[in-house]
Amino acid sequence: MLSFIIKRILSAIPVLFMVAILVFLVLRLAPGDPAVMIAGPNATPDQLQQLRESMGLTRPLLEQLIIWLTNMAHGDMGTSLISGKPATELIMDRFGPTLALSLSTVVLAIVVAIPLGVVAAWQRGKVLDRLVMGLSVLGFSVPVFIIGYVLILVFARILGWFPVQGYQPLSNGFVPFAQRLVLPSVALSFPYIALIARIVRTNVIEVMNEDYIRTARAKGLKESAVLMGHALGNAAVPIITIIGVSIAMLIGGVVVTESVFNIPGLGRLVLESVLARDYTVIQAVILLFSAIYVVINLVVDLLYGVFDPRIRY
Amino acid sequence: MTNQAETDLPVLSVRNVTIDTIPGGAKPIVRDISFDVRAGETVCVVGESGSGKSVTSMAMMGLLPKDALRVTGGQILLDGEDVLSVSEGRMRALRASKVSMVFQEPMTALNPVKTVGEQVDEVLRIHTKDSRAERRRKVLSMMERVHLPDVERIYRSYPHQLSGGQRQRIVIAMALILRPRLLLADEPTTALDVTTQKQILKLIKELQEEEGTAVVFVTHDFGVVSEIADRIVVMNRGDLVETGDCRQILSAPRQDYTRMLVSSVPSMQPRCAPLTDQPKVLEVVGLSKRYGKPGKSEVLAASDITFTVRKGEITGIIGESGSGKSTVARCVMRLTDPTEGAVVLQGQDIAPVRNLRAVRQKVQYIFQDPYRSLNPRRTIAQSLMEGLVNYGMPEREAREKAARTLELVNLPAAVMERYPHQFSGGQRQRIAIARAIVMEPDLLIADEAVSALDVSVQAQVLALFEDIRERTGISVLFITHDLRVAAQICNALVVMQKGCIVEQGATRDVLTNPSHPYTRALIDAAPAPDWDFQNFRPLPLAV
């Protein structure tokens, strides 16, 4: 198992390397120029050229790439072209809010979706099942920003239960921290609840036809115990897979949600950096996301082994 | 408990039970069934697929699929209590404590993600108030009673870490740990090897005698029936045909259906001698097959296999699961490449041949499961003609040949435009045989080709094999685990164990005078070896 983990981590290095090169090249190919952004509309061509030279943007592309990769290999993510702050520092500042939002969303999605899916499987074809599945279509098809604005309107503006926008770190106390996370997490979790509930339902229904379910019933177990004790555990592997995929997709969704709820997280950082053509910061954040994907996949694979004793590494 | 057992009241009394589909069909699928089972008695419910025997036993457990089947009439009395009218909660309380069940497929009957100890423990957890330690002690002692080795380790094992026989012992432990009054066993040994089957039957008998349990044993296998039954209930297409005590049904069945069913069971009496004067069609010399990398993970699936099949001969390869018999067949067919050795077909060694196109036509394969071996989206004509057309025969000619071949397997040429789902299992296997022999191969490989069939259909298909052999002079490599089937049609036998041939020779010699202890054990394990089912009497000369 340890050798499996080490192998997987080592195999992530070439992946991250490829991502790094791709990101670098794609950004350089994209239109826009960070020097123009900094110097503003009134700068003369000479000033611009000088600025570019000082930022190192006039060197050959390959040279820029090698410098960047070498720095990366030494753990130096570079400094922001715009603010001059180290990219690592910018990311660390913004990491907290995004982590809090993502975690609360994932936990919420799992906690809500699994019971919904199990209930739908149990009541297959009946009213409750149709209701859950109908809602899941809705949750899937309505964009996050619409759900977000509706939630703000109802729960923040009309009912006044939660603040409209913003973020407070946990260090300022749990209540303000949690209060500001509820609405964005709920908004962001909708499509994942829909997705996970559907997968849970499908897989539980499939498992319910297995022989060992009949065995469990023949023992005299209640239907609820059959579902929770025997069916769900056997449906776990595909459910974990989809949860892993959801977390990966979530990172994309965070960009929109953070904008709607004005949360200073990584999503906002990406947006700001893209608009300012702040190459180093974009590169650093995307590499970070890639590394997170790799870790999520590894964790998912390891969890397979936890839930299914037949899978061993 | 004891005074109940002593009274004359049967443990189980099935009275006029009728089971119908939801919504009701033209005819209920089980009609007006009645029989009793007393304490300590074993009643075998025998019937072919579709007879309603399994549905009836599921009804006794209250486990009929709610949205598909329901009992529309009658009573099922368990110690006088009608299980059809009790509440859901009461039924749950009865399950495992008063009536429990052992299922056919031990490979799938256990939850793969829980340890077997936990699964047996669960029965005690929901039906008793025992402490955790007390339950553990009881589970371990029950595991010992079903003769599992090293029970502490088994307790912590997951199902996939146990053999089929061990899993079935776990299922039995689970079923009997609360000492139910009635045990329903639905084909509990059908998926097991004969030697394991024998042990499991012995175990059920032993536990039944200790506890005075009433047993309903659902099976299609008359060999098993004759070993264990006190009384027999014969079912056919939802009707109860006949009941009687074991000896009476086997020796003097009253109903035609029962006579047909009993006489379809092949006897252990060898009938064919090898044809030593015929030319050799297949010679396998020193064949070995290794899987995995040499060294640690290497598995020797077949080792130094040498045998010969002559023209017009049916040579049986017999052995239990994992003996390597299918590996040998796959090597002969070149579905997998042998690691060593020669496969000489009509004088040509096909083991090293790279271009298999010519070889494929000469060797044809018939698989075990007729429900999965025909492409459901192709008509019978398409399936039969594909190979011929592939080898360059004009379509018109191929169609005529396919029609002639169908007649050879006793199907009218009119079935050509139908699809496989429109046929029964037996008919499908005939089609699969037609599909193979239409290519006019030198060698036919039949891999457990009759194992999935009902006994009456099996008898017909076996007769068909012999008929085709007579008419075409084809050679057959017949792979089976069933000694009765082998005795019935094989000229010569090859007995395999753990990848090696332990014995081979004329069928008569191997079966009547086995030289290897493993062959002896296989013969001893075959249920009722000394009963001549075809003639309703014991075999005149003991095998």
Automatic annotation (TrEMBL), chain A:
- Compartments reported by the entry: Cell membrane
An example GO CC term for this entry is:
plasma membrane
Q: How does it sit in the membrane?
A: Multi-pass membrane protein
Q: Which UniProt keywords apply?
A: Cell membrane, Membrane, Transmembrane, Transmembrane helix, Transport
Question: Which Pfam family is an annotated match for this chain, by its short name?
Answer: BPD_transp_1_N
Family annotation (SUPFAM superfamilies): MetI-like (SSF161098)
Q: Determine the domain of life of the protein's source.
A: Bacteria
Residue ranges spanning the membrane: these are 12-30, 99-122, 134-161, 181-200, 235-261, 281-307
Keyword Thylakoid attributed: no
Domain ABC transmembrane type-1 positions: 95-304
PROSITE patterns for this protein: ABC_TM1 (PS50928)
Predominant location: membrane
Q: Name one GO biological process term.
A: transmembrane transport
Q: PANTHER family from the xrefs?
A: DIPEPTIDE TRANSPORT SYSTEM PERMEASE PROTEIN DPPB-RELATED (PTHR43163), PEPTIDE ABC TRANSPORTER PERMEASE PROTEIN (PTHR43163:SF3)
Q: Belongs to which family?
A: Belongs to the binding-protein-dependent transport system permease family.
Q: What is this protein called?
A: ABC transporter permease subunit
From TrEMBL, chain B:
Concerning InterPro entries, the annotation shows: AAA+_ATPase (IPR003593), ABC_Ni/Peptide_Import (IPR050388), ABC_transporter-like_ATP-bd (IPR003439), ABC_transporter-like_CS (IPR017871), Oligopep_ABC_C (IPR013563), P-loop_NTPase (IPR027417)
Localization annotation: Cell inner membrane
SUPFAM superfamilies from the xrefs? P-loop containing nucleoside triphosphate hydrolases
SMART domains per the UniProt record, alphabetical: AAA (SM00382)
GO MF entry, a single one: ATP hydrolysis activity
For this entry, list what GO says about its biological process: peptide transport; transmembrane transport
Return the CDD domains for the record.
ABC_NikE_OppD_transporters (cd03257)
**Membrane topology qualifier:** Peripheral membrane protein
ABC transporter domain location, by residue? 12-262, 282-523
Any one GO CC term of this protein is: plasma membrane
Which domain of life does this protein belong to? Bacteria
One Pfam entry for this protein is oligo_HPY
Which keywords label this protein? ATP-binding, Cell inner membrane, Cell membrane, Membrane, Nucleotide-binding, Translocase, Transport
Q: Which NCBIfam families match?
A: PRK10419.1 (NF007739), PRK11308.1 (NF008453)
> Of which family is this protein a member?
Belongs to the ABC transporter superfamily.
Q: Could you tell me what this protein is called?
A: Dipeptide ABC transporter ATP-binding protein
